[in-house]
Design brief:
- Helix content is 25%, strand content 21%.
- The protein is globular and about 60 Å long.
- The protein has 350 residues and is α+β, with helices and mostly antiparallel strands.
- The relative contact order is 0.22.
- Strands 7, 10, 11, 12, 13 and 14 form a six-stranded antiparallel β-sheet that branches. A four-stranded antiparallel β-sheet has the order 2-5-1-6.
- The chain has one domain.
Length: 350
Amino acid sequence: MSEPQPILDPLSLAAIFLVVTIDEGGEAQVRDLLADMPGLRRSVGFRLPGRDLTCVTSIGSSAWDRLFSGPRPAELHEFPGYVGAVHEAPATPGDLLFHIKAQTQDGCFELAMVIGDRLAGAGKIIDQTVGFRYFEQRDLLGFVDGTENPEGKEAVASALIGDEDPDFRDGSYVIVQKYTHPLDEWRALSTEEQERVIGRTKLDDFELSDAEKPANSHVAVNTIEEADGTERKILRANMPFGSVKDGEFGTYYVAYAATPSVTELMLQRMFVGTEEAAYDRILDFSVAVTGTSFFTPANDFFDELPPPPEQASTAAGESPESSGVETTGMSAPFETGHGSLGIGTLKRSR
């Protein structure tokens, strides 16, 4: 029976997010890294007892076809991006996402270094974001972030794939974005006006009443209800990030969902608007810098990866040339490029 990667775990105190692109010809080496990720995490985490080091590994749409043959997740596609009349959510590159989290930053950093070493010559880390817990799970705007996350069975139903895609049961879809905040402009607002932007009280985190809550508030725009009144939810794992030196202050938006359509509808409403609001007013103080979509397989996916495309074609009686696969500059399916025999030397053995 499959089990999900640790996306349902409570938010950690520390995190590092790595977005990676795969070099042409680096597919075999990346496959070896993916197969070894559970063991790499255990090796680092065992030296840090009580730190709860975990890593959620996710794969992008175009990378999936370069790495694997056979079935693919039913709703995996590239991040569409959104262009509204005032604000824009760009779509940016990304083949792999490593969401590394722990109670202290040392374990996150060590595992990030290991991943970087294993990617050498096969992929590039195009974005590294260091996240941290800020007071009682507040963002840098000063508001509690994630209050409406589903819990218990509702969290499972909202975040994890079920029987609708049985080949990928207990997987999830994740969208990540980096937002930066012009804090000087935000701080120029009164607390009462900030609360109208968000739709919640700042100190005690209570949702404003419908009479008080503007239609363009963040809460109002992101509330999606079915015809029967059922609210559609996603599981957010947002974390603040920033640099005082560079004057950069932001939120790393992380949304896990059983279907990306819910997250995408929320983003469409935020940027393109609704019948009641031209856009989500939080965007006047939150600038989207990146946007990428991935699929997060269940844990057992990494125990036995699907065959690579060229191996599947050969097994079917086709030569790489007749299958249309470009072989120039590509490694053989089981060559690793880092001394491994490709037999899962880091898989659980004791």
